[in-house]
């Protein structure tokens, strides 16, 4: 999602009107979780349609300005410059350029680098365990699948020793702490989690960034809380909240080696909101459960 549209009153008004209609569809779904996943799909579809219409309208306006300028209307020059500046800002975002001088003008090289950035993320070749360089996309996928299956295969676990360790845990939450941890979620604590999620990050599979939730929290906040309550009652999150998009980032070393790619999982923001909320709750209790010599799980402790 282009977060720039969140600043446009037209988009905000259209979304709120549509969302009220989507709310009326809730009884048609067997669970609130199914309804929410459907709503997120509708948000994505509506946003794409809005952006397509917006781009078409802007192109038509630009062509009209160019026609006016050719006919001697000098006042059109300023509007043309604004349009080109806006295109440049979009190109900078796509190229992940955050430190370009404000007065730098776009060049052919700059726009070529934007395209190169997108292409460079593609994996065109990889070396398999036999030393053969694979180029076919399906073979490349199989090489990485085999590599990470072997890397992350669970080792044998001594369940007896595991139980012995658990039996020797002598610190447990008090009744008051347990009651607090298990209390119903509130819209306020969810909002505090939303406010702490950093913006400018790649969204998950639903394409909805945290900026969207910050913009429309007054519209969707209570419904999202109800969705999370439904998830706890059902014992499972919605399918989209249990889905992540795995991408591979290059590390130092030979680009053909699978070991020189670092996998990260892009999670949907609604999942992150819930995780952050639960983390905040645990954060208030963990100092009473974790000893002073443990180097993680408590704010201020580090490995």
Overview of this structure, please?
It comes from Holothuria leucospilota. This is Reverse transcriptase. The protein is mostly helical. The protein has 11 helices and 4 strands, in the order H-H-H-H-E-E-H-H-H-H-H-H-E-E-H. Strand 1 and strand 2 form a beta hairpin. Helix 2 crosses helix 3 and helix 8 crosses helix 11. The longest helix has 39 residues. The protein starts with 8 loop residues before the first helix and ends in a 14-residue tail after the last helix. About 3% of the residues have low confidence.
The helix-and-strand class reads mainly alpha
Task: Give average pLDDT, whole number.
Answer: 86
Amount of helix? 55-70%
Number of helices: 11
Protein name: Reverse transcriptase
What layout of secondary structure does this protein have?
Layout: H1 9-23, H2 32-70, H3 76-94, H4 108-120, E1 126-127, E2 133-134, H5 137-151, H6 159-167, H7 175-181, H8 187-196, H9 210-215, H10 217-234, E3 244-250, E4 261-267, H11 269-289
Antiparallel strand pairs: 1-2, 3-4
Short précis:
This protein is mainly α.
What key attributes describe this structure?
303 residues, mainly alpha, two-stranded antiparallel ribbon, 11 helices, extended, Reverse transcriptase
